[in-house]
Amino acid sequence: MSNEINQYKQDHQFPQVSASDDEIDLRELFSVIWQGKWLIIAITFIFAVASVVFAINQPNIYKSEALLAPADSEQGGGGLAALAGQFGGLASMAGINLGAGGVDKTQMAIEVMKSRQFTSNFIQKHNILPDLMAAKKWNMADNSISYDDEIYNSVESKWLREVKLPYKSEPSMQEAYKVFSKIIAINAAKDTGMVTVSVEHLSPTVAHQWVNWLVQDINKEMKDRDVAEATRSTIFLKSQIQQTKIADIRSILYKLIEEQAKTIMFAEVRDEYVFKTIDPALIPEEKSKPKRALICVLGTMLGGMLGVMFVLIRYFVRKEN
Predict the structure, then answer these.
(1) Architecture of the domain made up of 62-128+183-289
(2) Alpha helices in the chain (DSSP H)
(3) Which of 52, 189, 198, 208: disulfide with 283, CB 3.0–4.6 Å?
(4) What is the pLDDT of residues 55-89, one digit of tens each?
(5) What pLDDT, in 10s, does the model give residues 212-264?
(6) What is the maximal distance between C-alpha atoms in the chain?
């Protein structure tokens, strides 16, 4: 039987594959790398120099941040809850909703700060569009900002951008929102409820000022919203009082008007309406980025790997030919 198998193999001439044919000779690879060491060193050197030049030309970015705590929002909430428990059934019969539930005011304030409308109003109110879209360099000596001459003429306050339609020379609020959302960060800690607001900019003074403005504006925005809502509610409740003769319903309506008056009073006497400042923003003395040393190290490593790959690929291509 074995003789027949051997005869069959000889007749069909099966090639005998050696295990060494499928294996890569490490000594050969090291030899190829060693022969191309000068090319690898040259490529690595080029990448190292390029990464150093790139890192040096990157402007410093400064980060200013403030730590905030949600302010106590007991104005009206507790009163409405008590009214709901006491007169909820009677108020429902009269078509009045005393539900005290709703969206958390702190979370709503965070979402408002991230919204397009608030950002657009913020940019226009404080006239920060040039500092946001055209700033090129911060001059430490006189604490001034240099603008890109191809984008903005600071002397004439004129935009010089060359863009295609539908864009215009002056950046739109949609463009400004995209840029602004990249340099601002608003984070809420789930365990403590603390909120951190931070801004990154070429100028540490600008970053510090914008954080302060953001905190002030969001407190004012939420205050104005609650005051406007309480005022409208008061007008509506007074009209309902004139239309009903039921003593219990009129009592509920008067108590509701009282709660709205408390809301307005609470808003008027507190500047920190939604957020209390725990740790105010400071003018940063040290940059937050770029990490120039890391850029140089990564650039050099990338050059070395590309050099080794180039030498190996060149060797195997020549070997195939």
Answers:
(1) 2-Layer Sandwich (3.30)
(2) 2-12, 26-35, 37-57, 77-93, 105-114, 116-126, 129-133, 173-183, 204-243, 247-269, 292-320
(3) 208
(4) 998 899 999 999 999 986 544 444 555 555 555 44
(5) 999 999 999 999 998 888 888 888 888 888 888 878 778 877 888 888 888 88
(6) 118
Q: Token pair for residue 167? A: 């864009």
Close Cβ partners of 222 (under 8 Å, ≥ 6 residues apart): 105, 108, 109, 112, 273, 274
Q: How many CB atoms lie within 10 A of CB 234?
A: 18
For residue 131 the two structure tokens come to 């500092």
Tokens (6 digits) for 161: 């951008």
**10 Å Cβ neighbour count for 316?**
11
List the chain domain ranges.
26-58+290-321, 62-128+183-289
Distance CA 169, CA 92 (A): 57
Buried b (16+ CB within 10 A) or exposed e, 166-189: eeeebbebebbbeebeebbebeee
**What global pTM score does this model have?**
0.77
